[in-house]
Amino acid sequence: MCGDYLRNRRDVERFWMLVRHNPGLVQITFPRIGTIEDMSQDYVLETLSTMKNLKDLDLEWMPLDLPTLLNAVPQLQRLRGFALERLSSLQQDYSKLRHLSYPNKIDICELLNLLGHLPGLEELQLWQILVMPSASPTNMKAIVSSSASFPRLKTLRLDGAISSFEDEFVSLLIGLFPSLVRLWIGTFRPATRNVLWEKCYLLESINGRGEAGPIVAWRDRRAKDAFNRQR
User: Fold this and answer.
1) For position 141, what pLDDT does the model report?
2) Where do the domains of the chain lie, and which CATH numbers do they carry?
3) Global pTM?
């Protein structure tokens, strides 16, 4: 165990030495090594802040505070991290970020707050959207329904299971993405389909299927509408 730890530690040190000696990097993917978590967040953020060309950052398991990270690297366009912290604590907008992957769980209210500060976001990947069982269904519906829409978002991926309790709220949330083109969803229930049909006219694929399955109805509707406009 000690030997593995030391080898991993050396690997992390070599990785970070390469990063520090190449400040012009456009893309960085952190190693998937447990000892990466031992690195000082301040040290990592200080180094990243000097990399003015960095556009694509994959943190893997490195825990970093999201507001501080985006302040340090405001030009980021793609960000992935399993252990991102304080996602709901953004205090200003970050319009450059186009792709956010957080393969973890997030509360629906925290997600709404996060999205409100990422006006340029086009692709969002999550593991699961949570709704606290103790939350008032009436209040939660009002919160989600009254939220502003997010017209830039085109791709949404939810890989985790969705409970029957959460399904209604997640469906309302999906209705806030009128430009949605691609959807991956772990549990596809009728409530979700109904909202997609009503709100997401441009949808082209569901769970990677664009030529068969439920998505055929969307394609046929657009074809019919195009035909009627030409008459």
Assistant:
1) 85
2) 2-230 (3.80.10.10)
3) 0.91
